[in-house]
Amino acid sequence: MEEATYSNIHLALVHFPVYNKPGEVVVSSVTTLDVHDISRICRTFGVGTFYVVTPLKTQQELVERLVGHWLKGHGAEYNPNRKEALLKTQVMKSLDAAVVDITEKCGKKPCVVVTGAKQMPNSIVFSALREKMQASDDPMLLVFGTGWGLEKNLSRNADHILEPIEGNGAFNHLPVRGAIAIILDRLLGRGGS
Question: 2: pLDDT confidence band, cut at 50, 70 and 90?
Fold first, then answer.
């Protein structure tokens, strides 16, 4: 089976600015499971770069140490699949820094698409975004929040807000790893949306 790659499609997991449960803007903690699992999900769907976004130096060092272990350390020999999954994982201090990195790599600013669990006015539906992706090789950055969601200015400044995933009931609080897997499958998977 031929492998499809979407090196022009990038993903950012944002830890600041995000909300906590009471609605305050905070920095959320990086979890190593997110880094491992989302790297594997991105590799499965052929995504370009996976950016872990945090302004905290200690959290940046944690991600760099984890990635380094699997790329250069004992982990590289122990689990080559994990090494392959983490090859395109990078840590950035801000979402703006990720946009600059993509712009430098691709020669063009990416279309920024934010995600969230709430329905927002003028959201782009999955099928329309999938068609947009298939019709162009222009860079795109899919932005996911941690904590209780992305700070509202990130949505205001985005090119698109993706419609939320809707389940079968009122409960709507997917883990970010699950949401990323579902969204990438709908946008990039062989089955479509």
Answer: low
